[in-house]
């Protein structure tokens, strides 16, 4: 795996020991391609699972191409299994218009998100090396919207979340008032309005939730580059547990 996939190669501390590519068929029949990035795993040790939801920039025909941001999550000092499911155009992770600042959660999840949840459950059930109390979800842009939708539907398995330049339903924040969340957004974002993150942060703050918010001055849409490059993000993330 070449570090050049990452927009900022210097953020990569290590390459995965093993890369597994496969497909998962959900109960609905939806087929979800995915990649697993495995660290060098030691006998008897359990590892966190990071679910990464990609953005629309990774809507490409070949699902074997990993979004560059995923490699930024392969940290030598923070070994974890990174799960990268893949959705193809026009399937989103959550049914929202990214250009708006008002969003309403649908009654049911989109097939891609539901399949990602079922895949996480499958991995937890079949791989005893995964620490079920440390399932983290990270996503940017379209994946940021997916992250918000995921945690408000599947709080039961989520230990912490990092939604980057996304958005969601303010009314659903009451479902995650006890979940550690660290939000990132650039204040000059010209794709997803920064007001999305500001509103969700304000509501979680009102609910006294354990939420953090970082807004990057002058940064446009690619706020994931500074977010995923910050070692403090991973220190915080790996401290969280159910």
Strand order of the largest sheet: 1-2-4-3-5-6-7-8
The fold-level CATH name is Rossmann fold
> What is the averaged pLDDT score?
88
Total number of β-strand segments?
8
> Structural class of the helices, strands and pairings?
alpha/beta
Question: DSSP strand (E) fraction?
Answer: 15-25%
Named CATH architecture: 3-Layer(aba) Sandwich
Shape: globular
Structure write-up:
It is a single chain. The chain is of the alpha/beta class. It has one domain: Rossmann fold. It is built from 6 helices and 8 strands. Strand 1 (18-25) and strand 2 (31-38) form a beta hairpin. It starts with 17 loop residues before the first strand and ends with a helix.
Main attributes of the structure:
alpha/beta, Rossmann fold, disordered N terminus
Question: How are the secondary structure elements laid out?
Answer:
Elements: E1 18-25, E2 31-38, E3 47-53, H1 68-71, E4 81-85, H2 111-126, E5 130-140, H3 142-153, E6 160-164, E7 181-186, H4 195-206, E8 211-216, H5 224-229, H6 231-238
Parallel strand pairs: 3-4, 3-5, 5-6, 6-7, 7-8
Antiparallel strand pairs: 1-2, 2-4
Task: Please give a quick description of this structure.
This protein has 242 residues and is α/β, with parallel strands linked by helices. It is built from six helices and eight strands, in the order βββαβαβαββαβαα.
